[in-house]
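Bench notes, afternoon.
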Amino acid sequence: MKVICFYLFIFFLSLKVNGQNKIFYVKDKGSKKIVSNVNIDLLNGNFTSSDNTGKIIIKNSIKKILLSHVGFENLLLETKDIKDTVFMLNKTINLNEVLISSKKQKKKLILPKRGIGNISTKNIGTNTPLYVNEMRAVFIPNENKTQEKWISKIIIKPTNYNIMYPDSVSKLVVQKEAKYAPFKVNLYTSDTIIGIPKNPIFEKEFEVKLEKGSEYVYINLESEKIIFPDDGIFIVISSFSKDYYKSNGYNNAPSFYSIITGKKSKFKQYIKFLWREEDSFWEKDNWFWDNYSIFYFGLEILTDK
């Protein structure tokens, strides 16, 4: 009898808790498939997101919300009108129909352009490695907003790096296998007000590494149908733990090839120091800004002809 009473108590407690919240799911209006990692602006200075099942839980006290996701139209809702499912309109529907009917696709690379400053000894193409307590972000601008396009590949160029040992000024050692060390990659939307990375596009980072005999890491996103936002997008890299690298025979994450562009370049680089924990924020990667330099990261995009 006590066991039955206990389960009844749990049941009614869950009903009370759920009664204080609104629970619903987000789906693609066209395919009726679940949309995960949807960004939810509660319009009160707070944000949340859907989980990998598309489920969203918000308090009944919230009056309005704004749903956003790369590749979908923004959706402003009054919570009193929300039932058990909300449908978002996929921006790629019309574009896909055109591409399927015409069978024409055009590929284009978007990479930072080298400026005359590349003859300077300041930029030798290699830097310190990516450390475990930091994230780096490279902004890829969309300089042609008149043509709809989507991202098919992320392009990154890892490289080796040098170590100067303190006991010998002349002892410079090249970490020859460093460029093959694994690292993590994600895409972030751009904050349209201050231009820093805002929200991750993928719930989990891509874990990648340069293959032997290759010069670039290519991450294929063609099946993801990610629209290239008008406001541009960020390629964000981070590393594994120090112990992870040691156990796999590496000192650190790789370094990354960089170039000098120029004052007018719209490619920009930011850094986040994770050791600051709750005070961690995105800021200018000062050396790169001061020297008009940038990691040689880019995108392959697809457009209709």
